Amino acid sequence: MTQHVKVLIAGSGPAGLTAAVYAARAQLRPVVVEGEPSSTGDQPGGQLMLTTDVENYPGFPDGILGPELMTAMRSQAARFGADIVTRKVTKVRFDSSPFGVWTSDAATREPDYEAEVVIIATGARALMLGVPGEDRLLGYGVSTCATCDGFFFRGQHIAVVGGGDSALEEALFLTRFASKVTVVHRRDRLRASRIMQERAFSHPGVEFLWTQQVAEVLGNGKVTGVRLRHSTTGEERELPVTGLFVAIGHRPNTAVFHGQVELDQQGYIVTREGTATSVNGVFACGDVQDEIYRQAVTAAGSGCMAAIDAERWLEARGS
Ligand code: NAP
Predict the structure, then answer these.
(1) Which ligand 1 atom is the nearest neighbour of the CA of 167?
(2) Is 264 a catalytic residue?
(3) Distance, CA 247 to ligand 1 centroid (Å)?
(4) Strand partners for 252
(5) What global pTM score does this model have?
(6) Alpha-carbon gap, residue 109 to 111, rounded angstroms
């Protein structure tokens, strides 16, 4: 049976749960469709569930584990009355109001929810290499975020894989901490913009290994190196490093929103005037609409904005 709700929040990372705290405290009784664990790395709580120490989220002078932070945010949202359901949004209909939202266990033609407002906070995922050792050592030397984890690699030799702007940005940032940063790229020329290339080439702390693929991440409990394979000859060698930053791109989790709301060329939701999307009454926050900052704290901030925007939008409509 279709449940009618005022506010439905899709996603349960820092953006979705902050939106939930604000919407719940504003008596909007939000439903949070938090997602479901899947073999492709999806999980309620988002990307912070895949990190270890978070040292840059304000309020935790000694740092906090990513999963602990997300559990705390979830409890906080639940305490104010957010209804958190462990399902995944599988289909939406935004062409008429109230909006239709179908979730994973829906075998019906009718939507599970009809919502006056939808807040999209489904996040983004870092693309991964899919090589042995990568999953096992994620958070133990394998990282997808230099801003988050670079600090842990002071004085160490680390590798960055990728040849785009993200990889060079990560590499340059990491030179603040690392003794040496080796960029491993699968081709003999970079995809990155010229200015980023110039910066990286002229930095004494960055070196390049060309036409090399990471074939395996090595280490027991923590990264001790990577096995590299030459892209054309197949010749293999080991590079001893204590960290591997995977920077081969991100993909926003917007597959179910295609054709329903405006996306940019990369698939991110286009927001304007705060968190408004191309559909009146649909708001977006966090990494699903942000390919620049991608931080827990900026996601949380935009989640707060989305809830306030939603509340004002409902108020203006007299709902
Ligand atoms: P990107 O431009 O798509 O580059 C991805 C890089 O990863 C490419 O060099 C690609 O190699 C490599 N790659 C992809 N899959 C791989 C795999 N399985 N194994 C090894 N290497 C792999 O992604 P991005 O760097 O994240 O940038 C995305 C967008 O954001 C771009 O438009 C970029 O300009 C923008 N951006 C801008 C800035 C900035 O201006 N400061 C910073 C970050 C991102 P190939 O080259 O061989 O395909």
Answers:
(1) 25
(2) no
(3) 7
(4) 124
(5) 0.80
(6) 6
